[in-house]
Amino acid sequence: MRFLLLLLVAAIGVTIVLLAIRSSLRVEAELPPSAIDDVRWRVTHASREGVTHIVVRREVTSTGRVLEERIVTKVPDDDADYDTKFAEAITLARARAQLYDVEER
Q1: Which helix (H) or strand (E) holds 23?
Q2: Is the dihedral of CA 16, 17, 18, 21 positive or negative?
Q3: What's the pLDDT at 91?
């Protein structure tokens, strides 16, 4: 009986994961063609819990809807070389965003 219960819980867990993956794959399919032309990669950063996260986001520029986010790097806010590392990370993130935009066109 416990085995069947465990099997049922595992099946439900797998189903939830598969549904989440499927819904994330359909995000772009749900966008109208005009919105797809309005999608760009954008550099942003935010400090969370003493660490600055530098990321590139794929967003619909007219609405700000984030379709994807990739972390470029993280820099501790109290790092002695914070300014240098931050500037390098932003430069790298801008290059990546530009590359991703070119690849999608």
Answers
A1: helix 2-25
A2: positive
A3: 96
The answer to whether 67 and 24 are in contact (CB under 8 A) is no
The 10 Å Cβ neighbour count of residue 54 is 22
What is the CA 53 to chain-centroid distance, rounded?
Answer: 12
Give the separation between CA 94 and CA 9, rounded to whole angstroms: 44
**CA–CA dist 30, 33 (Å, integer):** 9
> Mean pLDDT per segment of 10 residues, for the chain of length 105 residues?
68 63 54 65 95 95 90 95 95 94 82
Query: Sheet containing 39-48: which strands, arranged edge to edge?
Result: 39-48, 51-60, 66-76
State whether residue 10 is helix, strand or coil.
helix
